[in-house]
Design a protein that fits this description.
This protein has 442 residues and is of the alpha/beta class. The chain is 43% helix and 14% strand. The chain has 17 helices and 14 strands.
Length: 442
């Protein structure tokens, strides 16, 4: 089988590479010539554990190809996946410009039957817009090639994307064609040998499933953060609450860790888009509007605790940040809580230094020299009045406490991920703030 994947961002590159890993002939298409040249050499533009060697291996074995020519990639192709970006528009809706541009170009160059699949996260009704665009272009060409449109949302977690694709919990296929369903089921057969299902459904349901999944996970995060804020007030410990509810099989123990809020490329964008879709259909998703509000508020919870420690005067205070990416095992800083934290700190006159194992270059690209960048986590602590832990990278979990106390001007830690134990912090002599747990004072 031969497929094309249009878009070599996170979703497109991971999807194309994992398909190639099963022996499928895959051509990935992008308009960025430099990016394509680098990918052809096995150099990837994103940080994702395990992806780079897999790209190199499949390029070397002539199963994975990269090109800027969509026209060439469509020759003898069975399936084309649209995996381009759908950035949020000013009103929160998903911008479908790139998706429909690709559909238009497919229509201009297809020469035989194709299954055209939206892999990008797109709102309900997008597949019909793709279908309409293809039909209009084919009519202008005065040709009558048949095609089917399908929705095949991705459920990849950054940092675990390879495993998520190769060993999925489920694969969702939305289509109104038995032929397209059979082709996609055959393509995905190697990935469901673990017994997890291919779930076939109508196209609108498939489009909504992706948004609903991310919205549910975002809801769990915001719910737990709201509970954590209540714990701060009433003196409860959110970790105990989490263990108490997480052991209930109806709730489960995933996505119920308190912190500084969700970020990344999916949750913020998808929650906004789903709210917008509902509003356009005269239905208010009140729970999700609250989820979004709680999350925005949570991004600066550490700054509020820092103000409390320093009597609302952060001017001239030196603050160290551990972690810049929105989560570990990625360099993604899209909608990362740290961006709000840095904005608040610098606005109030604090002097900020930061370290992240992989996101330093991305931070420089996004915010320039708004903070000082250091070579390791300990350099960030030199003469700092406080340390803020924003991302729970593994290397931060067992630090050298004696060295930390030697470098810090004041032994103050604000832990946005609850990675340390309260008693341990007390024994080590730190003033320690966390999320939804009691404050430890020196």
């Amino acid at each position: 089988m031969k497929i094309s994947v249009v878009g070599t961002g996170y979703v497109g590159l991971v999807s194309g590479t994992c398909f190639a890993e099963t022996g499928v002939n895959v051509t990935c298409v992008d308009i960025d010539q430099e990016k394509i040249d680098n990918l052809s050499k096995g150099l990837i533009p994103i940080y994702e554990p395990g992806l780079e060697p897999m790209v190199k291996n499949n390029v070397d074995k002539n199963r994975l190809f990269f090109t800027t020519s969509l026209k060439d990639s469509l020759k003898n192709t069975d399936v084309v996946f649209i995996a381009v970006g759908t950035p949020p528009d000013e009103d929160g809706s998903a911008d479908l410009k790139y998706v429909l541009d690709v559909a238009r170009e497919i229509g201009e160059h297809m020469e035989d039957y194709l299954v055209v699949v939206t892999k990008s996260t797109v709102p309900i009704g997008t597949a019909e817009k793709v279908r309409k665009t293809l039909k209009e272009v084919l009519d202008k060409r005065n040709v009558n090639f048949s095609f089917d449109v399908a929705s095949n949302p991705e459920f990849l977690k950054e940092g675990d994307a390879i495993d998520d694709f190769l060993k999925p919990d489920r694969i969702v296929i939305g289509t109104d064609s038995q032929k397209a369903e059979d082709i996609l089921s055959r393509l995905y057969r190697p990935f469901v040998l673990n017994g997890h299902p291919v779930i076939s459904m109508d196209i609108p349901s498939a489009e909504l499933t992706k948004y609903a999944a991310n919205a549910m996970l975002a809801t769990k995060i915001s719910f737990m953060n709201d509970i954590a804020n209540l714990c701060d007030i009433v003196g409860a410990d959110v970790n105990n609450v989490r263990r108490g509810i997480g052991s209930d099989s109806r709730i489960g123990n995933k996505f119920i860790y308190a912190g500084t809020g969700y970020g990344g490329s999916c949750f913020p964008k998808d929650v906004k888009a789903l709210i917008k879709t509902a509003d356009e259909n005269h239905h208010s998703l009140q729970i999700l509007k609250a989820v979004e509000s709680v999350n925005e508020n949570q991004k600066t919870v550490l700054v509020r605790k820092l103000r409390q420690e320093f009597d609302n005067d952060l001017k001239g205070k030196k603050v160290a940040l551990w972690g810049l990416s929105f989560k570990p095992q990625t360099d993604d800083m899209r909608e990362a809580p740290v961006l709000s934290i840095i904005e608040e700190l610098t606005k109030e006159g604090a002097i900020v230094s930061g370290y992240d194992p992989v996101a330093m270059d991305e931070s420089k690209r996004r915010i320039g020299n708004a903070i000082k960048y250091v070579k390791d986590q300990y350099e960030a602590l030199i003469d700092a009045d406080a340390l803020l832990i924003v991302t729970e990278w593994p290397e931060f979990r067992t630090p050298n406490y004696n060295l930390m106390k030697k470098l810090l001007k004041q032994n103050i830690i604000l832990d946005g991920r609850n990675i340390f134990e309260l008693q341990e912090m007390k024994d080590q002599g730190f003033t320690y703030y966390s999320i939804g747990r009691r404050t430890v004072k020196q």
